Amino acid sequence: MSLVYFASARVSKWKFEDSMPGKLDRLLDEINLSRFFEKNEWVAIKTHFGSEGAHRVVRPIFLRRIVEKIKSIGAKPFITDTVRIKGLDYLEVANQNGINHLSVGAPVVLADGLYGNDNILVKAGDILGEIAVATLIYDVPAMVVCSHVKGHINAGYGGAIKNLAMGAVSGTHRHCGWKCGRGAMHTIGEGKLIWDEEKCTFCYQCSEICPLDCIEFKDNRFNYDDDKCWRCGRCARVCPEGGLTLPGDDILFMKSLAEAAKAVLSTFKKSKVVYINFLTEIQPECDCMPAADVPVIQDKGILISDDIVAIEQATIDLLLKEPPLPSSLAADQKIQQGDDVLFSLHKRPYIIQIEEAERLGLGKRQYKLREIK
């Protein structure tokens, strides 16, 4: 049975040690980072930089506490993510969201290069075959996976598994393109965007949100670059009339997330990865969208473990106990106390990704929760 440490977001004493940054310090002490990382060893802190307009990422103050704890044992940390938009623009987004060398106390670098095609094919499994793991993630010997827990239009729930499956895998590969990048998960390798001319109002939101400038309208016809497109699905998500769809299979998608996460973790030796889930500002959408809605579930706290399956199951168990927040998308959809808020929002069977991760041997869903006071 794996051990998962938990610190509540509630504050009962007006002192630093009882603040969330202070509790994070204590969580890091409890798990004892020196068991995982060696002196002078490079340690990637994998997080999500967010988007211009999407600010509810793991806050820099937390990243800095992790950096300082890793430095205290003599290891050498840096902050990283794979590109979602053009690399230099993405670094500027990170800076706008407060993630830079000065704020976090460590270098902030792109895991798969300025163009997002610096990656290495890694065997994944029956669904994906091979997947393009970012070169930096492939090469680095140790990692802390810092995940902002939230809803997700495709995954239903986004935590540590999705952070690795899509966040440590590139959007494209130099030779096999999106079909062995994260787009392969979105559409299982074959999906094409479908445009419904009768529903289209030519608002051009799909074109404006495309991170690769793939979409254009000529003579009132929708066109996109099929080879260049990552299949991220943002265009279909923002279409107000449902005029764009991106076909997919929920069950295969969830299983492919676990498969991709396993491929990423296969590049690390045993006991070289630690997971931290931040159950804060739990919004309904991914941090890659160009806006952040208000949270749908109240802040719960921080979890830490060396078992990705256990920490994901513990996260879900905590969220299932929480009522939906008023004046949120959950309230708009009339979700009630006792409902599974994230499932009700997106109708995606997100638990499959956790079940599949256990089946693939990434960890155990059975865990013991130890709360620090």
Description of the molecule:
It is a single chain. This protein has 373 residues and is of the alpha/beta class. It folds into two domains: 2-179 and 249-371, Rossmann fold; 192-245, Alpha-Beta Plaits (2-Layer Sandwich). It contains 14 helices and 16 strands. It has helices at 20-31, 60-72, 87-96, 101-104, 135-139, 160-165, 183-187, 205-209, 234-238, 250-265, 308-320, 329-332, 341-346, 351-359; strands at 2-8, 42-46, 76-81, 108-110, 119-123, 130-134, 142-148, 150-152, 156-158, 194-195, 215-218, 221-224, 244-245, 273-279, 301-305, 367-371. The strands form five sheets. An eight-stranded mixed sheet has the order 4-3-2-7-14-15-1-16, sandwiched between helices. β5 (119-123) and β6 form a beta hairpin. α1 runs parallel beside α2, α10 (250-265) crosses α14 (351-359) and α11 (308-320) packs antiparallel against α14. The longest helix is centred in the last third of the chain and has 16 residues, at 250-265. It is globular, with a radius of gyration of 20 Å. The model has no long low-confidence stretch (mean pLDDT 93).
